[in-house]
Prior knowledge:
Number of domains: 2
CATH architecture of the largest domain: 3-Layer(aba) Sandwich
Largest sheet: 7 strands, mixed
CATH class of the largest domain: Alpha Beta
Number of helices: 13
Oligomer: single chain
Strand content: 5-15%
Helix content: 40-55%
Bound molecules: S-adenosylmethionine
Strand order of the largest sheet: 3-2-1-4-5-7-6
CATH topology of the largest domain: Rossmann fold
CATH superfamily of the largest domain: Vaccinia Virus protein VP39
Structural class: alpha/beta
Order of helices and strands: HEHEHEHEHHHHHHHEHEHE
Shape: elongated
Amino acid sequence: xxxxxxxxxxxxxxxxxxxxxxxxxxxxxxxxxxxxxxxxxxxxxxxxxxxxxxxxxxxxxxxxxxxxxxxxxxxxxxxxxxxxxxxxxxxxxxxxxxxxxxxxxxxxxxxxxxxxxxxxxxxxxxxxxxxxxxxxxxxxxxxxxxxxxxxxxxxxxxxxxxxxxxxxxxxxxxxxxxxxxxxxxxxxxxxxxxxxxxxxxxxxxxxxxxxxxxxxxxxxxxxxxxxxxxxxxxxxxxxxxxxxxxxxxxxxxxxxxxxxxxxxxxxxxxxxxxxxxxxxxxxxxxxxxxxxxxxxxxxxxx
Length: 302
Ligand SMILES: C[S@@+](CC[C@H](N)C(=O)[O-])C[C@H]1O[C@@H](n2cnc3c(N)ncnc32)[C@H](O)[C@@H]1O
């Protein structure tokens, strides 16, 4: 039986479908297959003669994806890998180029909602945050091991949290004498540093949101992986192939925007989304996570 939530709805689904316009028989690479929401849809479009290569760093999500993709028309192959290695995965799959490459960045709802994975400040759990459990460094290692200045830079560089210094100072005070080992404890330290009560209506988002995101991005080397993916993408796409990236964070969206613009100037890409595509009010109301999603799509023309 599938352990993936049956109601899982991928973000910006219809835009992804329309802009990536998978034709029957095409080869699709979903670099962040997750719970296979987008992948299922794109498999339908690729049909019986199409192929789907799915990649994820999270072995549990990959199992859920395998369940959800059972019975899909296209031929499906799943790989436990970081998308920074898309070239190796395609080599292993014996595929020279793909028609469509999709990356829906960040964490899945399943990872966020499982307190044992340590992404959540809503329910306390171990301060872990590894999407790939084969990584050796956890969020607790960073929080307890970095110097104050390193922590402050990490938080600023990955989330642009303007109170990064205050937060780093408070973390260093709190960890004196004992390790901070739970998400609940870290969340409390951050709220104390900002003098904010997470239950107060004054703060629209939880005060620890940016700090948690910054740590997660550092633990999983997310910006480096995205840079590598963007660099390798043109050589993985067939001529005419489309790349779509959904980012939830301005640093990542900025990287995608600049990459596509540079490749447009070089004559390598045509940009299919003049502005990033965002969720409409209905989707934003139904799925709060979609509120920060930005989709950009380009086509390889040289
Ligand atoms: C937002 S979810 C994707 C959801 C998916 N599009 C769906 O419809 O179900 C992001 C997924 O990408 C995976 N991921 C994040 N960074 C990755 C990377 N560098 N390489 C491979 N997978 C990654 C996460 O483990 C997670 O399962």
